[in-house]
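dumping these here so i dont lose them again. two proteins, back to back, each one seq then structure tokens. dont judge the mess
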Amino acid sequence: IIPLEVELPSLRISLRDYLDKDEDYRVARLAELELLDEKRIRVLNHLKVYQNRVSRGYKKCIIHQEFDVGDLVLKENQKNTVKDREKK
């Protein structure tokens, strides 16, 4: 059995074949693709600006501290966690 599209192409395929032969369509399509590249670059730049803004906001809340060998620090007690209580 031969598929129907082999004998009778669908409307979409017929239009695509017709438009591929049209020179104005090709020029318009290339211009559209160039605009798409420009839009991608704009979106990428916007993403970088957004990530920098979020990063700066995060870094404002962080208090940087440096510790030397021998400094006394408060250590978290990991034995008193919910997981340990559930096991008993």
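---- next one ----
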Amino acid sequence: ARLMAELPEIGLISNKAIAKLAGLAPIANDSGKRAGNRHVRGGRAGPRGILFIVAAIAAKFDPHLKTFAQRLQQAGKPKMLIRIALARKLLVILNAKARDARSEFANAT
């Protein structure tokens, strides 16, 4: 409920846009010909914090997210990157479910 309150746009905008709004999209640190690293920053801190906590829990109990996290870990990714990837994946799933629920509600009326 708190996530829906802090991200009222969920289900209305694209997955890339909602990830950027929550601060889970990689932001380029480029200048001229130099290609820097990508970092997650900006966006709304509240939803990002909620999603980080939920991602840690979901990685233990959700079988799909657990295998996703294990695959990233076997690829040698850092723990923080895995948690960010899980949080973004959760946000995309929630965005799709909210979008589908809104369209079903609109069709029902």
